[in-house]
Amino acid sequence: MVASRWSQWQLLGPGEQRRGWASDRPLGVVLEFGALRQWLADEARGWGADLLLGATAQGCQPVAAGMCTRLRLPGGGRTEVISDWVVDATGQERGLIGDPAPGRDPLVEGLGVEWLIELPPERWQPWADRLSFCLGSDWVPQGYGWVFPMQPGQLKVGVCRLMDPASPQPALGPLLARLISRLGLGDHRVLDRHGGLIRSTIGRRESHRRGRLMALGDAVSTANLLGGEGIRHAMTSSQVLAPLLAEALRHPTRADHLMDLYPKRLRRALGWRWGLSGRLARRTWLGLRNSQADRRLDGLLRGLERKNRAEDLSALLFDYRFERYGLRALPDLLGWR
């Protein structure tokens, strides 16, 4: 599942600025998601699960025996599955649980596109062993770009941004092509193109349950808008929900009480920093659209330069430990002053 390991951070921008942090040990891995999905499927089968690939859940409702889920099969046929519980893990589509009701905590949307490109070793090598991010409105207005190393000769290059309903935004495809050219990665072979939508509330107060229908991951807004991360936090939600479901199956009379614990425990597992990062994401990315915003971002990045350990940057960007930046700086980060 591991395409590569990395031990360095590289931040490009605003403009032509370049900043770097390095560690003498690996700080993380870049995953091959196809292999990850296969491993998860094999694990599920090993524990006795039946996998029905390519089917689409079209709805579910309670019946005397539990829950009945209607499925459309790959060939166009239809079938129904009776189960004690149903878990909606359809991501931002929220295929069964549905979107939260409009209110004070609306869904914030982001869109991303990523290409897997193939390059000669000498052009791949400068990007090996590091995560690289392109920041600033002249790179990606209201968003950012990235370059991640895969196996030798392959890079993942992408762009993403929050969607701004108040103003028009350029198409992502040309933005990505321009970024690739600017980085000197042109004349490449594209092995794969993919993209997706991220939708998440900031406060995460939407319903996690409808009777015996539960939801996890992006379906209950665990996708983090600051870093565009989904799978890591979705798996955290499954780690919270799974033991509660197992206990509910063993003790059906306690099921309602157990399922009421799920949202509270998930908020505790994600932590207060998760919510803070969502507010920071909306402030940072939607506001990153002109030279004034670039100067403000440059000031924040100069503060990061004082953190001369790559591990400190990982704690800030992956664990949302904003206190590593300095608690006095939080009002500036959030735009409170």
Can you give a write-up of this model?
- The protein is 32% helix and 28% strand.
- The longest helix has 20 residues, at 231-250.
- It has helices at 33-46, 121-124, 172-182, 231-250, 255-270, 272-287, 291-305, 310-318, 330-333, and strands at 2-6, 8-12, 18-22, 28-31, 56-63, 66-72, 78-83, 86-88, 108-118, 130-135, 143-149, 154-162, 189-200, 209-210, 213-215.
- The N and C termini lie far apart (44 Å).
- With 337 residues, the chain is α+β, with helices and mostly antiparallel strands.
- α4 (231-250) packs antiparallel against α5.
- The mean pLDDT is 91.
Which properties best describe this structure?
single chain; 7-stranded mixed β-sheet; 337 residues; alpha+beta; 3-stranded antiparallel β-sheet
